[in-house]
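To the team - NAP complex, inputs and output below.
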Amino acid sequence: VLVLGGTDEGRRLAGVLAAQPGLRVVSSLAGRVSKPRLPQTEVRIGGFGGAAGLAAWLRSESVDVVVDATHPFAGRITASAVLASTEVGIPLLVLRRPGWQPVPGDDWHWADSLAHAAELLPTVGRRVLLTTGRQELPHFAGLDQLWFLTRSIEPPEPPMPEHCEVLLDRGPFTVDSELELFRRHGIDVVVTKDSGGSDAKLTAARLLRVPVVLVRRPSAAAADTVSTVDEAVGWVIRSTAT
Ligand code: NAP
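Output:
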């Protein structure tokens, strides 16, 4: 079994599968984070070299099934997984946690892309908590009239907004710690991808009546998709039963 992605769900799934008798599980990480949280399985790190490279790897390791448990915005590796599993003729499952849903009190502004979020932002607030990941910072680089607190696991690289403080931190965060962060920096708008999962920053925003700019997910992959680790475990066990 190849499990793509070091997301929380990917790590949990890989750990459960590795405990099943008769399954060999390899987890694959992109290698973006210098000290990743590692799954309790065999791990390989780094790109495969596109869909063709992934297909060659699936063949050479005699992989029977692939689970794509990458982040919902990691579109290229998911596209590679769809192409490569089709080419090799093995089943692919996509494990995606659900996106967030607004509740009363939320002031959400949906953006179709990061570029669209950057366009909307000056009309929504001036002191920005930016949680879209360090690779997306260039989208916001031209917004010199705004102040940014960017939060990421690894340090971002230029181009960056002119007025920008970098916070290196890794979730999950608590509502209390988010409230404290918002207050300390006078945050009046949050920008996030609709990643799903832990929603402490969204709760803090609601409590403080701070608006949120949410970037919509890319369109769903053309593959069987489930939203929970339990469903994925069942699918793998059924797919690998002889
Ligand atoms: P991406 O745009 O879909 O992938 C770019 C390239 O990185 C892929 O073409 C592939 O290289 C390699 N890659 C990505 N995930 C891989 C994996 N699990 N194992 C081996 N190679 C992988 O992805 P991304 O947005 O750069 O994200 C990279 C990783 O960070 C993903 O695994 C994702 O789960 C995680 N992540 C992403 C986000 C986000 O917002 N995008 C947020 C949190 C975590 P080759 O073509 O050479 O195979």
